[in-house]
Design goal:
Helix content is 24%, strand content 25%. It is an alpha+beta fold. The chain has 3 domains: 7-101, Helix Hairpins (Orthogonal Bundle); 124-165 and 200-257, Urease metallochaperone UreE, N-terminal domain (HSP40/DNAj peptide-binding domain, Sandwich), CATH 2.60.260.20; 264-355, Urease metallochaperone UreE, N-terminal domain (HSP40/DNAj peptide-binding domain). The strands form 6 sheets. A 4-stranded mixed β-sheet has the order 10-11-15-14. A 3-stranded mixed β-sheet has the order 1-9-8. A hairpin with a 5-residue loop joins β12 and β13 (296-301). α2 packs antiparallel against α3 (42-58). The radius of gyration is 34 Å and the shape is elongated.
């Protein structure tokens, strides 16, 4: 969704704006940039389409919730009507916004007598915590999620089998009631049907007229090697059930990875620290480095190795999530200074220092000597 502006920025509102504030902001932009007021003005047309797309999401509490949680990615699969084509497609965009444009310029878009009854179920989010090893090598796991599913008795129709819904007598099935005030026509949600356009006189006894029932759903999940904290796994149709024949929402699984006691991960590389003795670092040695798969790798440490030296073991890191190959293992050696020397060991170390011409207990230099030596 690169290049698409934030919808709140498009409408010029804060993220805490109420539905009334969202509608007011959109109404202002719609009047300002409407094509009837700006004929042959491509910039105004684009701004009008952008504002309409933003309102289509933020003006719908369900879509707004999805956008607040997942941003533009929440609608990456289906696209938005306002951005889906040329100016000739505006009649489709206006459907659902008739109350805003009726009275602005006489008539804009299509006016339908009844509202679409199908209602898509809400998307769900499930936070899944996994072990460090499972993130590196992948894993098949099982999760259980609570969700609303379409009622099996009424098939999501909300009414008792054998009965039907009735069209709302107040709004005529539109779900909106309108009133005119001068140049503008204002609409609000119908108080009798609460925007549904229908009245249920014989609700389903199983779901009590909701169209959905609470259930726990068990799902088998495949975690691919290389996932990171924050990785989202989308499972289409495993969100909450729809009503009146509407499709189910989607399930988004968000991955969280537990810390490892020995390894750290940066992108696709693994890092660890291995202690060395002074003798091993000075003379050189071979050490065994543990790996996540319980195998050990031989690592040759050359003589004279200094502390914090990092050795790279190619191909022993984290697999690339969207490609072939994997990162590397970086091993940092840390030289440990012994703290429990015996008198004999101290004597030998002092002898070693004298052979190398090192002063074990040099006399402190005066300030004058330090300043003098700094210029030499």
């Amino acid at each position: 969704m690169a290049g698409k502006r934030d919808y709140y920025e498009v409408l010029g509102i804060s993220r805490s704006a109420s539905q009334d504030e969202i509608k007011k902001a959109y109404r202002k932009l719609a009047v300002q940039y409407h094509p009837d007021r700006n004929p042959d003005n491509k910039e105004a047309e684009d701004k009008f389409k952008e504002a309409t797309e933003a309102y289509e999401v933020l003006g719908d509490p369900q879509k707004k919730g999805q956008y607040d949680q997942f941003g533009h990615d929440a609608f990456a699969g289906g696209g938005m009507g306002a951005g889906a084509g040329g100016f000739g497609g505006f009649s489709d965009i206006f459907e659902g916004f008739e109350d805003l444009f009726e009275g602005f310029f006489g008539s804009s878009g299509r006016r339908t007598s009844t509202r679409t009854r199908r209602h898509r179920g809400s998307d769900l989010r499930f936070d899944l915590e996994i072990n460090f090893e499972d993130a590196v090598y992948g894993k098949d796991t099982v999760i259980e999620i609570p969700r609303d599913e379409a009622c099996e008795t009424c098939k999501g129709e909300r009414v008792k089998p054998g009965t039907k819904t009735e069209t709302c007598s107040v709004c005529g099935g539109s779900g909106q009631v309108s009133r005119s005030q001068g140049f503008f026509s204002f609409s609000s949600t119908c108080h009798q049907c609460r925007g549904s356009g229908i009245i249920i006189t014989h609700p389903c006894g199983t779901c009590k007229g909701r169209g959905t029932v609470k259930k726990r759903r068990t799902l088998s999940i495949k975690i691919r090697p290389g996932v990171e904290t924050g990785t989202k796994i989308k499972i289409t149709g495993e969100g909450e059930g729809g009503t009146f024949g509407g499709e189910s929402g989607d399930l988004y699984i968000v991955i969280h990875i537990r810390r490892h006691e020995f390894f750290e991960r940066h992108d696709n590389n693994l890092y660890c620290e291995i202690p060395l003795t002074i003798v091993q670092a000075a003379l050189g040695t071979e050490i065994l480095v543990p790996t996540l798969n319980s195998k050990k790798i031989k690592l040759k440490v050359p003589s004279g190795t200094q502390t914090d030296k990092i050795f790279r073991v190619r191909g022993n890191g984290v697999p690339f999530l969207h490609g072939h190959g994997q990162g590397d293992l970086h091993v940092k050696v840390v030289i440990e200074t012994p703290v429990d020397l015996t008198p004999k060991q101290k004597e030998l170390l002092e002898e070693f220092a004298r052979i190398r011409g090192e002063e074990v207990n040099p006399r402190p230099k005066s300030l004058y000597e330090k300043i003098k030596n700094s210029f030499n």
